[in-house]
Each structure stands twice: as C-alpha cells, then as structure tokens.
Design brief:
Number of strands: 17
Shape: globular
Number of helices: 6
Low-confidence stretches: none
Strand content: 25-35%
Distance between the termini: 43 Å
Length: 269
C-alpha cells in the first residue's frame, strides 16, 4: 500500500500509510533530515523518504508502540525516549499477548497471525539509543521534551521553524492512558498544565492518527477533559484480556467535540 505524502510547511512533510491511516513526519534541515516515527513497517515508507530527501536521515520514535516503530528495521539506528528503550522491556508486547489470549478462540488463525506480525515489536530489528534534548539538522534545531503518560517514554518534538509540535499519541481526542498504567488522569493534567506554559509560542499540534492538526488551544480542552474525569462516569469498553477493565470517560468540548480518555479505573481514583 502506497504512502501518501503532503507538504505541510517548508521542508516539512506528513507521510500517511493509506491502509492504517497512521502519520509519520519528515523535517529537513540544511545537513540532515529527521523522520519522526516509522509506522507499522510499510515498505513504501523508506521509498517515500528517499524520494523526498537526499540528506542523511535521523529516525526517531515519539514512543515505542508498533504503529510508530515497526518500520524501524528500515533505518537501522533509531532514537527513542529513554524509558521506552527496549532494554527496559516492551510493555506493549505484554499487553497484546494478554488481549490476544482473550480473543484466541474467536479469531481465525490467519487473522491472529497477521495481528501478531503487525503489533508485536522485535527489539532486535534496530539499534536503539536514547534521545538527546536537542536535534540539530543544520540551520534547524528540534527540541525533544519528555511527555510520559501514553507510554513512560513518550516525547514531543518541537520545531520552532514551523511553530509545530509533533506529538505522536501524547495528546489526542481519543487518549489511551491504560497503555501506561503508572500514569494518572490528575497527574497527566498537571503535566500538561506545565506543558501549556512551556510551549507558548507554538501554534499547531501534529498528531499521528489524524491528517488534520489540532490548534494550540486544544491543550486547554485536553486538560479540562483530564481534570473532570470522575470514576462514576466511566463506561466499560469491549477490550478483553487487560489487567483491569479498560474504561472510557467522555468530555464535550464546544470547539473540538467529544474527547475521550481510555484508562484503567485505578488511574482515575
């Protein structure tokens, strides 16, 4: 399946897998290019990157989940947030195995095999190292800011040249927190209150599962969604095989519509 390419700013591109709808981003400097996330591993991604730039490519992950990192094998060396380094373990693999066990009897073997190939991360597929605080591309410097909550090692890539924040899954209309059980709704709200102040001057949030960016003002709405979560307002999801029942909580934003937070009950008490 072909990777769709869209220029979103000068020397800045969004690359979208047409099958899964997951975005990656390519930022060019004068000396190097930065590839933010590598998707599920579609072979058309490295071909698209090669057509866009002749510069050496630095591959990074916003976090170590399969839809953001299973294409790491095409780039050899990849940098991720230190807590997400595979040497610390791969929690998403454990989560998938638990869910898969719950559905094993109801899914056909070929479908289960395909799901495993798509969602399990092979730590040996690339050489991993921790992200620095700054990435210099030559005439263009991108700041790396830790943002634990979706995973322990989730980060934001902040590009002053375009006033753009490349957020992966760290902020979204459908926010999965159960993938990082150590986080809490209140704690994540406090983290984003600090982010809101720190990121003043940026205008756009580029996220991984929508071709349309979010405005900077979405951060305030997101904080409200996290702050107003109450245990009694949770609704059970249909996800099986997790350590706790995954529950979702809804917040109605006048501008952005429904914001949902998916979490374990222990994360909202």
């Amino acid at each position: 399946m072909r990777t769709a390419v869209k220029r979103i700013a000068e020397r800045t591109y969004m690359l979208t897998d047409r099958l899964t709808g997951v975005n990656q981003f390519l930022l060019e400097g004068e000396e190097k290019a930065l590839l933010i996330d590598t998707g599920y591993g579609t072979k058309s991604l490295p071909r698209a990157v090669k057509k866009l730039t002749s510069l050496p490519v630095i591959a990074v992950n916003t976090h170590l989940h399969p839809d953001h990192s299973n294409g790491n094998c095409f780039f050899g060396k990849v940098m991720v947030g230190e807590p997400d380094l595979p040497s610390h373990g791969v929690p998403s693999n454990e989560l998938f195995e638990g869910v898969a066990a719950a559905y094993r009897k109801s899914l056909l073997r070929p479908l289960m095999s395909f799901a495993r190939k798509l969602t399990l991360i092979d730590p040996s597929a690339a050489e991993y190292s921790p992200l620095p605080k700054m990435i210099d591309l030559g005439g263009r410097t991108v700041e790396v800011i830790p943002c634990p909550g979706h995973t322990a090692g989730s980060v934001l890539f902040c590009d002053p040249a375009t006033e753009g924040i490349f957020a992966g899954d760290a902020i979204n209309r459908e926010q999965w927190m159960f993938t990082c059980p150590a986080s809490t709704a209140k704690g994540y709200a406090e983290l984003w209150k600090g982010m809101q102040e720190r990121l003043t001057g940026y205008s756009t949030l580029w996220i991984s599962h929508s071709r349309k960016p979010l405005g900077f003002d979405f951060i305030g709405e997101f904080i409200c969604a996290l702050d107003t979560i109450k245990p009694e307002n949770g609704r059970p999801s249909k996800i099986k095989g997790t350590p706790e029942p995954v529950t979702f909580y809804e917040y109605a934003s006048e501008k952005y519509g429904r914001i949902r937070v998916w979490a374990y009950p222990s994360q909202v008490r």
